[in-house]
Specification:
This protein is an alpha/beta fold. The chain is built from 10 helices and 14 strands. One zinc ion binds next to loops.
Length: 443
């Protein structure tokens, strides 16, 4: 470790500690504050002046969806708009990521907003006029909307530089849905490539569209989304004639026993008040109905909210797989990959931001969120710095039921875009404003 590196690391730590300390104090003394009326009006005006262009951008991205780590055209469109605003723009971060820095006219901390850009391998079945032109690829998780909200927030805040105390970093991230097999990508790689440094980011904001009524936002302090791990198990037996099982080792029978036993980890060994899921979503093996299968492979996912439970499940899985196969003199392989950790809303940041949202949207539209077993790689940022992640209702009032995320019929109501921009602008300005007030009037 060089002296310079050590010095920089210490500086970063001191900075982060002081930001977290600020959050605690802000939560205690400034929790009722929000942006002034004049600024709120300027936000509204900038949104309405730029909305058409932002909607056009969203539709362009929706029509040209790109899979994880292949967001070339999307990144180009995003970078072009950010460059036209004369922000400090970096491209090619974590493969196709784009990062832009907006420096306010007043000194202060840096906060970040993150939007993800990738689409899914799904054939779009909606009949919207801007339907995907890329066969088998669709923005079925709303990342086109997130990207549009991210760009819109940059456009609006760029008109408010005089009101910004500090800087805002805009992070457009590839591969939230997971990098292709054998590749790195997503939030983890963005962090490795230094997205939270230069300048050091004090807190980060993010949102996800959610198939609940438009006008509502959903969040809670603490863990709101689960960690997500992948595993693959191969049970290795010996083939024989189907009529002479005693001469073989039946991988199908032992795989079946193993699978039943694995489910007992959740039902019998994990505290029922500590949510956890173990799902086996894929199984394959055998060649013919009258041949004893020599190998069966199954794959699945484990979801949890805390690291102790996560590690305990992994250990117990291997114990069960080893024990079951050994008792029938069979072999196995067990692969387990830790995916994103759980999304953790920093409690103090959530406490500070809650009144901002209530004042902006009305208390009845700010809903608390029960922990969700779905995962989001925003979690990686939350492990490094205070993070605030909310869900944005996108179900149009005209429909009763909305297709869920990852459905080929998923259609978010576009009115969520101006609302999302407004929410993000208020959260960011308010966060920076509060830290400035505190520095000027230390308690
Ligand atoms: Zn998704
Ligand atoms: Zn998503």
């Amino acid at each position: 470790m060089t002296g310079q590196f050590y010095h920089k690391t210490m500086k970063k730590r001191v900075f982060r500690k002081s930001f977290i300390l600020l959050l605690f104090i802000m939560g205690t003394v400034l929790s009722g504050f929000s942006v002034d009326k004049k600024t709120a009006f300027r936000i509204e005006r900038a949104i309405s002046e730029n909305l058409q262009e932002i909607i056009r951008l969203r539709r362009f991205i929706h029509m040209n969806p790109e899979l994880s780590n292949r967001e070339f055209q999307t990144a180009r469109a995003v970078a072009a708009k950010l460059m036209s605003l004369e922000l400090e723009v970096k491209t090619g971060v974590a493969k196709t990521g784009v990062v832009a820095l907006l420096r306010g006219e007043q000194p202060g901390f840096t906060v970040a907003i993150r939007a993800d850009m990738d689409a899914l391998p799904i054939q779009e079945m909606t009949s919207v006029p801007f339907k995907s032109l890329n066969p088998g690829v669709m923005h079925a998780c709303g990342h086109d909307v997130h990207t549009a909200i991210g760009v819109g927030t940059a456009v609006v805040l760029n008109t408010l530089k005089d009101r910004i105390h500090g800087s805002v970093k805009f992070i457009f991230q590839p591969a939230e849905e997971g990098a292709p097999f054998g590749e790195e990508g997503g939030a983890d790689l963005m962090i490795k490539e230094g997205v939270l440094e230069n300048p050091s980011v004090g807190a980060i904001f993010g949102l996800h569209v959610w198939p609940q009524p438009l006008g509502n936002v959903y969040f809670s302090p603490g863990s709101i989304m689960a960690s997500s791990d992948w595993f693959r198990v191969a049970i290795k037996g010996k083939s024989a004639h189907g009529a002479r099982p005693h001469e073989g080792k039946d991988a199908i029978a032992i795989a079946a026993q193993t699978i039943v036993s694995l489910q007992s980890i959740i039902s019998r060994s994990i505290n029922p008040t500590d949510p956890a899921v173990l799902t086996i979503g894929k199984i394959y093996g055998g060649t013919k109905s009258n041949i004893i299968a020599d190998e069966v492979t199954f794959e699945g996912t484990v979801r949890t909210f805390n690291e102790i439970t996560r590690n305990r499940i992994r250990t117990m899985m291997e114990d069960i797989i080893r024990g079951t196969t050994q008792s029938f003199r069979m072999n196995y392989t067990f692969e387990y990959t830790m995916g994103s950790p759980s999304v953790y809303n920093h409690p103090e940041l959530a406490k500070i931001m809650s009144p901002t949202l209530e004042k902006l949207l009305g208390r009845q539209h700010v809903k608390s969120l029960a922990p969700q077993m779905v995962a989001e790689d925003f979690a990686y940022y939350c492990r490094k710095i205070p993070g605030f992640f909310l869900l944005l209702g996108v179900k149009s009032p005209q429909i009763d039921r909305m297709a869920p995320l990852h459905s080929p019929y998923f259609i978010p109501d576009e009115s969520c875009i101006p609302l999302g921009i407004k929410v993000m602008c208020h959260l960011i300005l308010d966060c920076l404003e509060k830290q400035k007030l505190l520095e000027e009037n230390p308690f």
